[in-house]
Amino acid sequence: MTTSAPSKNYADDVSLLVVTLDTNPFFWSSFPFHFSEFLSQVLAFLNSILLLGQLNQVVVIATGCNSCSYVYDSASDKNHASTNGTMPAIYSNLLHNLDEFVAKDQQLTTPHHKPGTIPSSLLSGALSMALCYIQRAFRSGPMHPQPRILCLQGSTDGPEQYVAIMNAIFSAQRSVVPVDSCFIGSNNSAFLQQASYITGGIYYRPPQMEGLFQYLSTVFATDLHSREFLRLPKSLGVDFRASCFCHKQTIDMGYVCSVCLSIFCEHHDKCSTCSSVFGQTQSEAASEENRKRKAC
Ligand SMILES: [Zn+2]
Ligand SMILES: [Zn+2]
């Protein structure tokens, strides 16, 4: 009796690429390269991923300053129907959703950011959404595509998001989801350097924006299997600095709670996260309290 050949395990070669796209208007208005030029190169890159394999899937999450949203999913039926004949459905749907998103995100803008500074984008939210989507793919059955996340980021890090971003990074590491980072801003992003380093992804800062498509297609279009055979950019030094939990500021040195590993920039008697008392055990503190009372 012949058993039917096992169906091809396509999960090895098929990519699920979740892209987070920085739409922070404050960043783009201060950046010499125009958002529309950036977007046209990114769209060409997304198209090339879909062309590399018909089972490949691309999901785009827009990252604004106040919110994030799914703007494109190549698996959605809507994106297969051609809409107006002048543009492929991928572009018109994505651009339409992106327009709506940017308008909605702008309405949420709170005026209390410091003038002269550029507010950061909500990277923590975008990473969480990407991981939620990937978890859904994992649960859809044993034949899921190989997921990876690509952060297209330009805004500076928001130290207030430190805890949420680190949690997302460790969650990605546990699920073996590499986080690739294409950082286009002027200074490196410590968060994304750490994200790519911890999850085994690639961190790369293109030296010039004109050739962005080249960099995207040669560095980030490679699937996880091919990466073993390629010489991809290695990260040259990672900024491992953390943010304190008390003031959400990036610090070089600080105090760490030995119980919950919360980080503080100055000495506290009690941990604000887990309420551990520092320097003495709680029973010692209680007996000292009693002694003081007796002395009075
Ligand atoms: Zn602090
Ligand atoms: Zn603690």
UniProtKB/TrEMBL annotation:
Pfam families with a match to the protein in the record: Tfb4
**Domain of life assignment:** Eukaryota
Q: Where do the coiled-coil regions begin and end?
A: none
Q: Name one GO cellular component term.
A: transcription factor TFIIH holo complex
Q: A GO term (biological process) for this protein?
A: regulation of DNA-templated transcription
An MF annotation (GO) of this entry? zinc ion binding
Keyword set for this entry? DNA damage, DNA repair, Metal-binding, Nucleus, Transcription, Transcription regulation, Zinc, Zinc-finger
Q: Which Gene3D superfamilies match?
A: von Willebrand factor, type A domain
**Function field:** Component of the general transcription and DNA repair factor IIH (TFIIH) core complex, which is involved in general and transcription-coupled nucleotide excision repair (NER) of damaged DNA and, when complexed to CAK, in RNA transcription by RNA polymerase II. In NER, TFIIH acts by opening DNA around the lesion to allow the excision of the damaged oligonucleotide and its replacement by a new DNA fragment. In transcription, TFIIH has an essential role in transcription initiation.
Q: Which family does it belong to?
A: Belongs to the TFB4 family.
What quaternary arrangement does the UniProt entry report? Component of the 7-subunit TFIIH core complex composed of XPB, XPD, TFB1/GTF2H1, GTF2H2/P44, TFB4/GTF2H3, TFB2/GTF2H4 and TFB5/GTF2H5, which is active in NER. The core complex associates with the 3-subunit CDK-activating kinase (CAK) module composed of CYCH1/cyclin H1, CDKD and MAT1/At4g30820 to form the 10-subunit holoenzyme (holo-TFIIH) active in transcription.
Name the chain's protein.
Answer: General transcription and DNA repair factor IIH subunit TFB4
**What is the species listed in this Swiss-Prot or TrEMBL entry?**
Medicago truncatula
